[in-house]
Write a structure and sequence with these properties.
This protein has 97 residues and is an all-alpha fold. It contains 3 helices and no strands. α2 runs antiparallel to α3.
Length: 97
């Protein structure tokens, strides 16, 4: 017994682009070094991404520099105030008053 197509296909399926645009593949391996460092870090840390976020930022920075993704602020990508980052300018710290 055949059931045919799912109902959603017969009613007119609409294709929509991703919210942040296209994410082309790195065919030439321009950012492969950053990708492998990030994946190695994930393997060593039992897939705990918090330990490897700085490498994720480096990989995305490479992709932006090579035109493999749109330029975006790391704040929008959730990659600010990571371990090892310099603290924001402390010229206006509360203890200076």
């Amino acid at each position: 017994m055949s059931f045919g197509r799912p109902p959603s296909i017969s009613t007119g399926f609409q294709v929509t682009p991703p919210n942040r645009g296209s994410f082309p593949l790195d065919h030439y391996g321009e950012c492969k070094v950053f990708m492998t460092q990030y994946l190695d870090c994930l393997r060593k840390n039992s897939s705990t991404s918090t330990e490897c976020r700085h490498l994720n930022r480096d990989y995305l920075a490479c992709r932006m520099q090579k035109g493999l993704m749109d330029q975006d602020d790391f704040k929008n990508l959730g990659l600010v105030n990571l371990k090892g980052d310099k603290p924001p300018d402390s010229a206006t710290s509360p203890g200076d008053k």
